[in-house]
Backbone:
């Protein structure tokens, strides 16, 4: 986005449209549902534009499964580069590169296809929510293990009480709204 008014519009849209769901997907977790933001064209456009802000020398945007796909594709279009879908385990045909990690309510695995060479490419990681930081950190490590250069990460919501930012300190991390 180009000025403070545009950023204010994006922040206001996220605050107005985010739906909070307690005890989902497991008891004790409060889920920030951004699908109402994505369903509003003006809100989505302002959020995507803001996430792309300040990232000019990017070869590839890595959108994390699944809401990060939506945002990542928009950011890639905004930046004029390609997008890489970072998938949950079992969603891609082999061969794949994989990375397991822990999250606040269990563990998971992320994968990228071996057919896409990320070595030496400047990659921006995009996701919807930063909670404990495990998913963004696992994505960064998965890509870095394959030779990618992580130029930064950007998320819509950061749940500050969960301390995820500390796990993502090796690269710039931008956040639109902190709660």
Residues:
């Amino acid at each position: 986005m180009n000025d403070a008014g545009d950023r204010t519009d994006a922040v206001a849209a996220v605050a107005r449209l985010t739906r909070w769901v307690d005890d989902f997907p497991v008891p004790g977790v409060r889920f920030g549902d951004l699908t109402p933001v994505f369903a509003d064209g003006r809100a989505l456009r302002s959020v995507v534009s803001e996430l792309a802000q300040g990232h000019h020398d990017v070869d590839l945007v890595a959108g994390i499964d699944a809401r990060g796909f939506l945002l990542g594709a928009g950011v890639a279009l905004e930046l004029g580069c390609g997008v890489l879908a970072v998938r949950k385990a079992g969603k891609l045909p082999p061969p794949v590169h994989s990375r397991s990690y822990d999250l606040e309510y269990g563990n998971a695995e992320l994968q990228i296809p071996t057919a896409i060479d990320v070595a030496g490419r400047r990659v921006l990681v995009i996701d919807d929510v930063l909670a404990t930081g495990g998913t963004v950190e696992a994505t960064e490590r998965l890509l870095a293990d394959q030779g990618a250069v992580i130029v930064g990460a950007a998320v819509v919501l950061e749940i500050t009480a969960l301390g995820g930012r500390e796990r993502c300190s090796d690269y710039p991390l931008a956040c639109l709204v902190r709660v």
Remarks:
- The mean pLDDT is 93.
- The two ends are 21 Å apart (CA to CA).
